[in-house]
């Protein structure tokens, strides 16, 4: 059984808890005694579809009615361990030709994992990565034109800022030399020891969405001229995307530290966000909206702030990656050491969340759709805050309902 770890002012507190296969949770949970203010643990071209004001929104994808009204109770089955022995893994990008690209935050490398055999092949190092604290090589995303350009996008911390680069991936070259020289797409995102954000994803509109952090400079989150504490929306070339609400890269603001981005079958954008000492959040993102930080953490009575659709005490979640499958958002918890299911209902934006795999695999960093009812789930025990055991870190294949 994995131990449960929090850090308060440099003191590590370990609490042993019995592992449960499933934990049903109400939307509001009691605030835990572990303070989370020490870091992330704290806790297409702008077309608009009828009835939607969101840039890039498109008509709902057709699919089974189960995806529109998910079952009240879900399930998670761990099919297998895909691979083991990863070092500080962070980003995960499935390749259309097969294989999974994994970034190592602290090593500054990208590795290809054969999802059938588990074999790992290092593509190469990303020049300019300066890992420290929660910074380093983080999110990965494939170009929307990957089939023709074979470009891989990466978000990383440099000596001066957080930035996004793209690199040519050439599998025909020798291992260790398969990444081309990085082309900087966007730079100048504030950096810090903590709260560097780091998740990137291309949306249904083929625009690049970026989750950033406020680097402990809380006023950046409300400053619409800063790219810290925001969700950004960019063209693949790094320009402000057409239709952005402020004629800038900023898509939404008032965020503390965004590390999860995913779209549902209706093309609605959701994002997970670390709270400080009280509430972590899952938000439905609308262009131009203010999500409250640092004036609000979790639900607020002030109508100028967009409230989260769900919130958790910081020791139950500390969420990083999210994915959409089977009518639900699936959210990986670091300090919480569990996988949350948040059903999305038609008339109600969210039903009561459920927790799975509590403590079974330790800290969970990234979850990605593997198609249909399957997910890839990646652990995060070797990032300096976990308690690594034999085989850490791992990628798991899951079946979910």
- What is the overall number of helices? 2
CATH class: Mainly Beta
Summarize model confidence as the mean pLDDT: 87
Q: Give the low-pLDDT segments.
A: 1-38, 44-53, 58-66
CATH superfamily: TolB, C-terminal domain
Name the CATH architecture: 6 Propeller
List keywords for this structure.
401 residues, mainly beta, Neuraminidase, 4-stranded antiparallel sheet, 27 strands, disordered N terminus
Could you explain the architecture of this structure?
A hairpin with a 4-residue loop joins β10 (151-157) and β11. The model is unreliable at 1-38, 44-53 and 58-66 (pLDDT under 50). The two termini are 25 Å apart. Strands 3-24-23-22-21 form a five-stranded antiparallel sheet, with no helix packed on it. It has a four-stranded antiparallel sheet with strand order 4-27-26-25, with no helix packed on it. It has helices at residues 65-68, 146-149, and strands spanning 4-8, 11-15, 20-24, 76-83, 89-94, 100-104, 109-113, 120-125, 137-142, 151-157, 162-168, 183-189, 200-202, 208-211, 230-234, 250-253, 258-263, 269-273, 279-285, 310-313, 319-325, 328-333, 339-343, 354-358, 364-369, 374-379, 395-400. The chain has two helices and 27 strands. It has a single domain (4-400), classed as TolB, C-terminal domain (Neuraminidase, 6 Propeller). By secondary structure, it is an all-beta fold. The longest helix is centred in the first third of the chain and has 4 residues, at 65-68.
């Amino acid at each position: 059984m994995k131990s449960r770890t929090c850090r308060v002012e440099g003191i590590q507190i370990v609490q042993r808890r019995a592992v449960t296969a499933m934990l049903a949770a109400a939307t509001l949970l009691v605030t835990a005694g572990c303070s989370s203010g020490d870091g992330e643990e704290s806790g297409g071209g702008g077309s608009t579809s009828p009835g939607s004001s969101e840039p890039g929104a498109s008509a709902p994808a057709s699919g089974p009615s189960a995806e529109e009204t998910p079952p009240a109770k879900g399930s998670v089955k761990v099919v297998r361990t895909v691979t083991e022995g990863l070092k500080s893994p962070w980003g995960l990008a499935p390749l259309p030709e097969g294989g999974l690209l994994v970034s190592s935050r602290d090593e500054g490398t990208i590795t290809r994992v054969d999802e059938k055999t588990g074999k790992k092949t290092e593509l190469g190092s990303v020049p300019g990565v300066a890992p420290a604290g929660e910074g380093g090589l983080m999110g990965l995303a494939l170009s929307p034109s990957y089939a023709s350009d074979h470009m891989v996008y990466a978000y990383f911390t440099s000596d001066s800022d957080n930035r996004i680069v793209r690199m040519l991936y050439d599998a025909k070259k020798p291992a260790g030399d398969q990444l081309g020289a990085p082309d900087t797409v966007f730079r100048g995102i504030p950096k810090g020891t903590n709260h560097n954000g780091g998740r990137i994803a291309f949306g249904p509109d083929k625009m690049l969405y970026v989750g950033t952090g406020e680097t402990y400079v809380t006023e950046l989150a409300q400053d619409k001229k800063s790219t810290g504490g925001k969700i950004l929306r960019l063209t693949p070339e790094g320009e402000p995307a057409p239709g952005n609400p402020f004629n800038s890269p900023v898509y939404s603001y008032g965020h503390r530290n965004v590390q999860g981005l995913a779209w549902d079958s209706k093309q609605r954008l959701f994002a997970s966000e670390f709270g400080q000492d009280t509430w972590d959040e899952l938000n439905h993102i609308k262009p131009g909206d203010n999500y409250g930080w640092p004036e609000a953490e979790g639900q607020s009575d002030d109508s100028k702030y967009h409230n989260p659709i769900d919130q958790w005490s910081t020791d139950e979640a500390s969420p990083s990656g999210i994915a959409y499958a089977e009518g639900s958002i699936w959210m990986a918890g670091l300090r919480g050491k569990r996988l949350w299911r948040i059903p999305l209902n038609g008339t109600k934006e969210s039903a009561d969340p459920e927790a799975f795999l509590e403590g079974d695999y330790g800290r969970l960093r990234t979850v990605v759709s593997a198609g249909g009812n399957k997910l890839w789930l990646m652990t995060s025990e070797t990032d300096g805050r976990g308690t690594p055991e034999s085989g850490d870190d791992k990628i798991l294949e899951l079946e979910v309902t």
